[in-house]
Amino acid sequence: MEYKRVITTAVLSTFSCVSDGMQYGWTAPIIPKLMSKDSTIKMTLDQAEWLETILMLGGCCGIPINLFLVDKIGRKGSLICSSVITLLSWVAIALTPNIKYLYVARFFAGIAGDTGFVAAPMYIAEIADHKIRGFLSSIIYLMMLIGIVLVYCVAPFTPVWVPCVLGICFNSITLCSFPFIPESPYYLLFKDRYEEAKHALERLRHDTEVESELSDIAAGVKRQKSERGKPQDIILVKSNRKALLIMIWLNASQHMSSISIMLMNLHSILDEAGAKYISSSTAGILFSALMLVAAISASLAIDNFGRRALLMTSGTLTGVCLLIIAVYFNMKNSGQEMISVSWLIPVAVMFYAAAFKFGIGLVPIVLTAELFSAKMKAIGMTLSDAFYVGFSVISLQMYHQLKNTFGIQVPFYIFAIWCFSTVIVTVFYIPETKGKTLEEIQVLLKSEESNRLLSIQNNNRNYTRLT
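Request: output the structure for the sequence above.
Response:
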């Protein structure tokens, strides 16, 4: 099958995620500038911490918007709305005269980013052939990481408005490309628009012989529509409940493995460690570049080795890196001289960047659009996303509160334990979806007992092969 057209569509539909990544990493290089004596916007330390959190709070408030948009105006329409709001947020940040306007702009950027990260994985999972669905879904995070790399490379060395202009450009490219992107065939069939779905699939596959695939999709959508679709079914139906619990844990794991803390506080963590071998600006660029390289490697491996193998490998290595950081700060804060081994923290942080993005930081975005049935996809992904942004706020507040009260080592111990727990959850609870159609995944979830042992055996072999 020719995949060039669907890959191009996936790239164009996720281009705005570059801008979202820039918003996510924006505070790390920008806050030191805003708190400097030369800044035209005066800011306290507490205000700087809220500037980090307000983006995630915007994501929380965007949850009901997501639930409405993806089913009412479609996946494509939701992505257009997200791009427009993010573009306007960048304009506001570039022109803002005080901290209050920054809060408002960041809040709306959070709403838009959250919408994009629900609609985009849903759209890609529904347009992709199952053989490359994992790779295509990972493009979302690759785009986000490109945005983080850009803001880390540009923001420390240019005026505050320059990253804003870059963000505006990426959103503008996205909006200009949307007239050429078809809507999801799954969504169109769900709305009983068969001819439009056929035309969309023909455009995606670059083939007029799509009747067989379209019939399979239509049969799956029809079966899923015939099932109960009340909101409470996300809990009452066993397969839906399992999908939701898996995604709650994995989305929580992304933040409880400290990624938001690292991205938004990397400079201050290295400074507190007393690292003298690398500047914070250089470390930020290297950190984001390593994440991008690891994510690219994982995206190429995910359809060969599977989702579970990457999660287990990543969870183990990420936990070890965080444990090293926690032990270092524990010894340093107890009065021991650590100057001679201060290189440990930059090294551990860089290994963390690669280990995290090789699995925990990539696999959830793939699974989130695979596990829920068509009937439950909108509410399931929205609830999963609610926990994603909720745990981002929790992790940031927990980090600052525990750090200020007990020392910086305490939150890092907690983050390390969570990573090791994710490995255990993966071994005993998370099914392998590699190479399966969306309909086959639903069958797997519904007959979990008969498939669980076989899935574990197959993927333990993959894990052994990978490690």
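The chain has 23 helices and no strands.
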